[in-house]
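Pilot study result, target chain (324 residues):
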Amino acid sequence: MSSIINQIQAPIKNEILNFEKEFRASMNTNVVLLDKIMTYIVKRKGKQMRPMFVFLMAKMAADINESTFRAASLIELLHTATLVHDDVVDDSSHRRGFFSINALWKNKIAVLVGDYLLSKGLLLSIDNEDFHLLKIVSNAVKEMSEGELLQIEKARKLDITEDVYFDIIRQKTASLIASCCSAGVASVSEDKELIEKARLMGEKIGIAFQIKDDLFDYGDAEIGKPRGIDIKEKKMTLPLIYALNNSGKSEKRKIINIIKNESENSAKVKEVISYVKNSGGIEYTTKVMEEYHKEALNILHSFPDNQARVSLEKLINYTIERKK
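Predicted structure:
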């Protein structure tokens, strides 16, 4: 995996290294407890996919500048804030193999840390008058919250259609990758059509990315979340929606009853997974994911052909070929 990421990062290697130094420095604070938590957050940073999208989009469209660094920082600050708050909402003790902030320092501190990160992002934009970037990223945070609430609302009734599913993932996941792509271009260009084209491409990448995540729930690989976790959490994802839409009434009633009342029973969860697989849910979902992947590449190929575009193509391919 690291070799693929290294290849993708090649045209922006120095920028990513400088960004990591700047981002770590921007996290420093005189409050000892907060400084300790910020150090912990910075140390457990993952593959840096979001900054990679920002820098590669900027480099593909023009030349990276200081505004691009601020765009990447803004997205990381606001996104990290939403993750910290999400762990409180979900009562999660782990995130990607690490203890969550709320597990180590309790909910009260985690909520305040999330607030602090949000304020850092807002001030970074306001102090540098990056209002265009703040608008892009704030809109993504708004959509992410709406998507999360829509999913919670629908999980109670289990009445999600394909249209509602796509509304949820477009807002919850795709809006953030869309904002990475559009903010990257907006940091180097004022061309509104170009910025919108970047946003649309990011949205399609984000949808493909989330569908891939949903498919992991039905796989056998070790991916950092237990198999069947979406079913246990009563999340209606595309493989399950497709299977239910192509079932008889009694079969549909039986599966919904398991999800509503027996989702803690591992044997029953396995029964739902087998049912989805036998109903063609995996094949259908994979085909839909590949369509979004293809649409994203078609938009990418309308941008100038350079090293950054080659890396972006590899990054887009990675979103649906990754193993976790």
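One observation from the pilot: Residues 60 and 306 are 7 Å apart (CA to CA). A full batch analysis is planned for the follow-on phase.
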